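hey so u asked for the seq, here:
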Amino acid sequence: MHVDLSGLRALVTGSTKGIGHAVAKKLAACGATVAVNGRRDEDVAEAIDSIQAAVPEAELFAAPGDAATARGIVAITQAAGAVDILVNNVGIFEVKDAFAIPDEDWQRMFETNVMSGVRLTRHYGPRMREKGFGRVVFVSSESGIQIPTEMIHYGFSKSADLALMRGFAQALADTGVTVNAVLPGPTRTEGVEAMFAADGRPMTAEGERAFIDEARPTSIIKRLIRPEEIADVVAFLVSHEGGAITGSPVRVDGGLVLSIT
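ran it, structure tokens below
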């Protein structure tokens, strides 16, 4: 399904790579003007060039800044200006023993994965409400429901994203603004590829299947999800056609989560 986002302006945080990059490219291909965000100017420029090469008609501009800090959020919002679509995508993860996670790692996970979305939604939500239209999407994770033992601080942060999503959706009831979350399962991003390399695991279909069988055995599709598959769902949620969906966690997890609700 190809949705039409012509005339809409979007900000996708953490869009220089991974899921965020795929989302920015998809929204641009659907006609939105997209602000590309990353911490470093050169990474943002490179991402814009990459998207422009794939989507020649794309309307893109740079909104650099560190979404994990209050100062960075100010820089991002000043560069992005008014937006109709906000995708709170920026996030980090790491594998670490539950009892060896120091305070600073908990804080870093919270600031990046949670407070970035708080600050941006707090900024843009009232402005969208005034216009009578807006779309906010939090990129959460299946790990927010089935907490992974090997990275509980990450799971905690993604559970928090779900709470934020629901709370902000309720706060924006009857305004024309929707707030939702997507819950990807294990996805083939640069971070996951680096994790495979560090483990000496081949980045092949067989390697993916072995990882899924070991680490996420409840997956039904038995492979890593592609970032483009997440982007397709985000594009629908932010479209006019997705206007009846709000306050909802939308699973794009390959059937990994055991619950049917």
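Strands lie at 9-12, 33-36, 59-62, 85-88, 134-139, 177-184, 249-252. The chain is about 45% helix and 15% strand.
lmk if thats what u needed
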